[in-house]
Structures are given as C-alpha cells and as structure tokens.
Design a protein that fits this description.
Two copies of one chain form a homodimer. Chain A is of the alpha/beta class. Helix content of chain A is 40%, strand content 26%. Chain A folds into three domains: 5-174, Molybdenum Cofactor Biosythetic Enzyme, Chain A (3-Layer(aba) Sandwich), CATH 3.40.980.10; 180-257, Alpha-Beta Plaits, CATH 3.30.70; 262-413, Maf protein (Alpha-Beta Complex), CATH 3.90.950.20. The radius of gyration of chain A is 26 Å and the shape is globular. The relative contact order of chain A is 0.08.
C-alpha cells in the first residue's frame, strides 16, 4: 500500500468570506479525493487579495497536492495566477489552443470577445492544461518543488467537470493510488430514514469495513457503503457481501445505485416496456416533464405535458368539464383523475399522470398548503388517484410531489 | 471611524475534511461578522489532530479576532482545548458554574452523566465564559497576545445561539464597533462578466469605498457594492452615489437587486402590464413554466404550457403542419415561431414563448448540440425568433435557454 497522499484545498473568493455562499466546492472535492484514497488535511478560504493569497500559497507547500478553486476569471479581482507566480516565480504564458477555443466560443455564441477574456487562457510555463467542457477558463496542473498544484475555476459546474474528467484520473495515475476507498451508494424510495436505520440497526453498528452511512435525501434515503482496500476488486468484494445482507432485509425498497435517479429508472423501465407517458401539471407547472427531459433517453418515452395552471386552461386545453371544477374544485380527486385521463388522450400516450394541489404560500379552495392529488392512468385505463400531504415551502412541496409521482410510477412498472 | 478589525475562522472537524458536510457555520459567522463591521480574511478547516490544530493556531496570530468552532465535545477526538494550550501555554481549569449546569442538565433529562462530560466544563484560565442555552459546552473568550480567541461548539444551533447572544455583542463592545459594512447587489442580464468589467474598468479600479465586486452567475452577472461606514445611512449614501455612476454606464442591463431573480421580475412586469403568458417547450420540457410557477404570483400571469417533446405532439397538440417539420425540421425558426403562435392561441394568453433545440448529448436533425430557437409572440402578434447557441451539458443548455428566454421577455416588457 503506497504512502498516504496529503492534500489541501484553497478556495479563492471574497463572496465566501462575506458569507454570501457556503463552500460547497470544498465539500464536493473532499468527498471525491477521499474516494480516490487521497486524504484532505486542510481547507483554506482566502479573498481576492494578492498578499494574502501569496501567503496561503506559501503555507500550502506542506501538502503533496493542493487544489485551488476560483480567481481564474477575466476580471481584475481574479488574482490567483498572479499570486501563485509571486510565490513560485513561475512564468505565465498564453495557451494558444485555449485562446483559439475562447475565440471560437465567442464566435459561436455571437458574443463580443473583450481583451480581458484572453487572460483566461493564461497558464504557467510547463503546466498540463485540462479542457473546460462547460466554460472558458481551463484547469491547470503544475508541479512546484514536491507539491502538485491544481487550479480550476470556482463555478461549481466547471470545477466538477474538470475535476471528474481530468484531475482525479490524473492524480490517481500520478500517485499510483493502489490503496483506495471505494464507495457504493444504495438508493431506496418508499421507506423513511428512521425506519431503514431501525431495520438495519445491528448491521450498521457492527459494520466497520465497509462502513454503512445512511443519508436522508429529498423524498428518498441512501446508504453509502465505503470500503478501504488495496484495490478496487477487494473493496468491491467487501461491499457486495454487505450489500447482500442489507438487501435481504430492505431489498424491495431499493431502486438504484450511486448517481442513478428515480427519474432515470422510470425512463429506463418505460423504455423497456415500450410505454409512452404524458403529464398534466397544475401546481408542479412542468416540473415533472422537465425532470423526465433531463434524462437523455426521454425522447423514447415522453410524448409531452400540459401545464394547465389556470382553471380556464384545465377546461379549455384538457376539456375538464366546468361542472367538475365548480363542484369538486381543481384540487380534487375527480379533477386529478380527469386530468390524467385527458392528457393521456391528448398526447396519445400509454400512461397519463397528473398533479394538482396547493403549493402555497396560502390555502386555496379551502385546502391546506401541501395538499396534492396525484393520479396515474395506465395503459389499460386503470386510474389510481391518491391524496398526499407534503411539508415545506412552495418549492419543496412541488419537488416532493414530483418525487412521489416518480416513486408511484416506478412501483407500477418496475 | 475605528480601524479595521481583521478576523479569521477556524472550523475543527474531520467530517468537513471528508466532505460529509459543507461548512455552513463559516458562512453564517462570516455574514454576521460582516454586518457588525468585522472583516473576515480567512476560513480554515482542520481535522481533530493535535499537531495540525496547533499549527493552525500558530498561523492565526496574524488576526485580531479568531473564531474557533468545534472540537469542544466530550469525546477523545475533541482536541481543540489541548491544541490551543500547546500553542499558548495557557492552563486549563474546570469552570465550576458550568459543572453545576451540566449536572442539572443530566438530572433534568434523566440521563446518566459520564465522567467525560466534565471535560466540557474545561476553560482556559482567565477566560470569559458564555453560557450555552441550547447545549452543554459553553462558549469561551480569551485574549492571547494581541488576539482575541473565541471558542464555540460546532453544532450549528449551539454556535448560533452563543454567537448572537454573547459573542457578537461582546466584540462590538470590546472593539467599539460604531462602524458597519453594508452591501447591495446589482443584478445584470444580457451582458457578460468580462464585458461588464471592461465597461466599468476605471470605476472598479479607482473605487475603494464602496468596493465593487463582479461575480458571474449562470447566465447573468452581479456587482456587489460593499460600503464601510459609521452607520447604515452613511453606507447607503456611499453605495447610492456609486450605483448612479455604474448605472449611467451599464444601466440598461440592470434587472434587479440583492436576491431578486429574473423570473420574479418577469412575473412582476407581466402582472403590472396585466399580460398573461403560455409557453411551448420542446428541449426545455416544461422547465420554463416550472421556473415561472416557482414564483408565488405566477397564477396571475401564467395560463399554462404545452410541452411538445415528440414531433407528433407538436403536430397533434399545437397543430404544427407536418410540412413545416418535414421541410425545416423541429429545430428551426419556422417551427419555433409557429409553436409560440399556437400555444398563445391554445392557452388564450397575451404572450406566447417557445423553445425548440438540441439539448444533446448527440446532434439532432443535423443541428449542433446547444442550438436553440426561442420565439416570442407578443400581444400584437409580433413574433421575434432568435437562434441561440449554448455551451455545456444537457442540463446547462436547457437552463441557459430558459434564462435567455426570461431575459428576452424582460427586455420586451420592462
């Protein structure tokens, strides 16, 4: 087992020191380094200030790997490169391929390239350059003395892309990380965190390698199994054994692994069963269909969706009889079932799902905030309508409603 | 105006270095110190390790105020006190009143007090002790050389209680903080960070109070003006003067302030102009309508939306002639404009907006990933269709398309 690699993170940005945002980049990077067997010993946050940045770089010589995020942008207060140059004396050069891709980017997006954009192509002489697939400034790797410095933009989407596509693989290879922490996440839906923990109590407390960490997510629960071993095979072996024990107890709540989402599984199952779907959405306002469209395979299964937010739209677009609305209200089992039936017909799909309810902030039609009717009509025209009550604010109520709809769809077709 | 107080935060806890949690304590403390006129220069996260903790305390002598959270618990890996003692040589004593309140606490809650709970009553000789109204370990304030050290537990609820009830007032009094930092965020859309910076270059570099900090967000840019003054009135005065100068240059890109969102402004303007809207969505799949529905006022302006994901749905639900699709494709200016026109009619709304394009991961109809046509038909049936090209993955392309649609709507009705 090779020796321990000591890493530290430096996050550059005054917005962090002002408390405008939490340092979620540091959390994400720490988790991913740990999974590759790299131990993080320090996080440092420092502002866009040349002297203080340089001092932090000075301290960072204590580490084998230093990941620096932020301060690579085009503006004057982006000083990461300059501060590192001041500490190391390395010279800054323009990276020609990056200049070209920046110019192409601005051509493509019909935007005006200003001189300071060139700055984002500045790298240190001798760097390895990692392409930024979602933004402009690339990632940079440069060795100085016995320390490997990695620089990425602070924008989370760009940092994550560069880290997972290039930096982690680069470090694993460079340091021959032949001892690893391998993790596998089991994803459960339809069971609460406390119940899951209760069922697995003895297992969780007696288990050391892999460790079992339950985590409650929005509308679902995950178990993270983390095994420490000399290689991935051994770790996987350890994890599989424990996984079998877990699934023998709570297996029928499992829907997926790692980064799989319930939406993804629903799309998979629909595709396998050659079923198409359409949604009629009131309080969710298109959040269900949008969640499905996030999945690349969506075009095989989603015909479309009707967001019928106003009562008129319900009547006019989905032919919900005015009588139903005046008699039962739009937030009713009757209206929900008709919405599902009609949208199924309108979009000529096999399955129709509908969401109608009260997202708040105030009651509506005398129904409490959080009241949501979800109806699913299947390919045999059997409709199941359930009244749910969700906690939270406008946003979480809508999110939980969509999650519940996906859960019920999954149960129907799994 | 009294001189600038320089603070830094030290968060102790391996769970932060493993990425199990984000450092939200640091965000909270930073915000509250800034509001009291104390500038935070560094955040440091370090694990429960005696040597490394001691080294971090060594570095922290650079600051006037050091806020240390975590590592005060009863367990063996709570080493904050020991590490600080090692750095300073201060002696640790038991705080009798705290011992008593701990004993009472365990009596009250009918729990067994274990010997290691006594450890939580340990303070440094000469400390000021701040009662913990929601937990066991108290807060501690101790001066060492020219630095004031504050220690609080890492549990957010306990940290927040001790900070707001005792620490902040203590610091304000101790440092005669009759000056404050007041911030205002200006939100711009339709102009890139680099271009904004370019236009404001002289202003930004000559400006010291308030300072001007640009930050690029998804599809928009913000400028944070932070003024340092004796009171809020003076700070506001300083900010307003600078804001006027800024707006005289880039004013027509401004859409809002502080936490306002472009969706919120669009909904406001639509409501003020008594206009209703409906969207026809292909690649966005309901993300636009769902973003509008996030705003509580949405019901006044959104009639609904048609997610027409499949070509058939476009023909069947929005009566897009098959000829248009076979001749120009669904990703075309012609299809986009018809979608906007038809959805406006179908939902009897004043404005119709449509999104059709290629979210990826692969090309479609020979169009590049990121190609998006957005069409807006206004209340006079004037339609404006623009072809955009967005960078990024499936998710960011869809998000940026919606942001751009909101931007164009805002320009239309602002």
């Amino acid at each position: 087992m090779s020796q321990q690699i000591r890493a530290e993170l430096i996050s550059v940005g005054t917005e962090l020191l002002l408390g405008q945002i939490a340092n979620t980049n540091a959390q994400w990077i720490s988790k991913h380094l740990a999974n590759s067997g790299i131990s993080v010993y320090y996080h440092t946050v420092v502002g866009d200030n040349l002297a203080r940045l340089a001092q932090v770089f000075e301290n960072s010589k204590r580490s084998d790997v230093v990941i620096v995020t932020g301060g690579l942008g085009p503006t004057e207060d982006d000083l990461t490169r300059e501060a590192f140059q001041q500490t190391t004396g390395l010279s800054i050069i323009e990276h020609e391929p990056t200049i070209q891709s920046i110019e192409e980017y601005f051509k493509r997006t019909n935007r005006q390239m200003t001189p300071n954009n060139r700055k984002q192509a500045n790298i240190f002489e001798g760097s390895i350059v990692f392409e930024n697939s979602v933004g402009i400034a690339p990632g940079i790797a440069i060795d100085y003395n016995d320390t490997t410095y990695i620089f990425t933009p602070g924008v989370p989407s760009e940092m994550k892309a560069i880290m997972s596509e290039f930096v982690i693989p680069h470090l694993v290879q460079k340091y021959h990380l032949n001892h690893i922490i391998h993790s596998k996440v089991l994803r459960f839906i339809g069971i609460g965190e406390s119940q899951l923990e209760h069922e697995l109590q003895t297992l969780i407390s007696n288990q050391t390698n892999p460790t079992i960490a339950p985590l409650a997510k929005e509308g679902e629960v995950t178990l993270r199994l983390s095994a420490f071993a000399d290689n991935k095979e051994d770790a996987t072996q350890l994890i599989n054994t424990t996984e079998k024990e877990i699934l023998s107890i709570v297996g029928n709540y499992l829907y997926g692994y790692d980064d799989e989402t319930i939406a993804q599984k629903v799309v998979e199952r629909l595709k396998e069963n050659q079923l198409t779907i359409a949604s009629a959405e009131s309080l969710t306002g298109g959040l269900f269909s949008s969640t499905i469209v996030d999945i690349p395979e969506a075009s095989h299964v989603l015909n479309g969706a009707a967001t019928v937010y106003s009562p008129t739209a319900k009547e006019h677009v989905l032919d919900i009889p005015e009588l139903i609305i005046s008699k039962h209200g739009t937030v009713s089992s009757e209206c929900a079932e008709l919405m599902a039936k009609q949208v199924k017909k309108l979009y000529q799909s096999d399955i129709g799902i509908s969401f109608t309810g009260v997202a708040g902030p105030t009651m509506s039609e005398g129904k409490d905030v959080g009241t949501v009717f979800i109806s699913i009509c299947d390919q045999y025209d059997n409709c199941h309508t359930v009244k749910h009550l969700f906690n939270g604010n406008r946003f979480t109520i809508r999110t939980r409603a969509v999650k519940k709809g996906l859960e019920r769809l999954y149960q129907l077709i799994k």
